[in-house]
Design brief:
Length: 237
Amino acid sequence: MANVARMRRKALPYTFVLPLSAVLLLVNFYPLLYSIRLSLSVWPMDKFMEGPTFAGLVNYERVFQSERMWSSISFMAFYVVSSVVAVFILGMIVALLLDTNLPARGLIRSVVVLPIAMAPLIVALTWRHLLDADFGVVNFLLSFFGIRSIAWLSTLPWAKIGIVVVDVWQHVPFVGIVLLAGLQSIPEEYREAARIDGGSRWQVFWNITLPLLRPAILVAAVVLTTNAVRMFDLSFG
């Protein structure tokens, strides 16, 4: 009886997890497997009611022979690398500024996180008006510096740069808040001891602060890279 009771206690947590695990498997893995099946099939619209027909790797051959495919991959690589690097640099600056004794620091933090709360499609529509070549606010402000109107949304490389700028604007606050949480978890005694030993601000940051920020940096990097790779709504809007 004791063994049976022990086995029941061990199995009890799994009985609570099992329903949610089944739902996650159904929601995540079934669409993935179905998508793989469709990618190996052809399904003409004039034969829609007949369902997909297995075609092997024909679709993959067409994709990798397409110039648009390689153009999309090159743009995605440019977008991911440039946006993630820029967001990290600016996010670190924001975190370091918010970690100081700024006046009205609470209000500033509340304002900084506003871009995160906006839906990506709303951000895209807003910036589409701001970057409009004829009536956009950005070109209007640049005109004061003698810069001619730029077609941000319809010419290269400005369209690529515009998407990166908008993405950076939206995600810098997220990285800033994540890194700020990491900064505030670092005991001040470590940095104070380094300063007493004669370390400069840069040496303290590079040798003390940055290594202790690795967990926060890793979290932010994973989230940013994942969002950048699956970005659609921003460019579509």
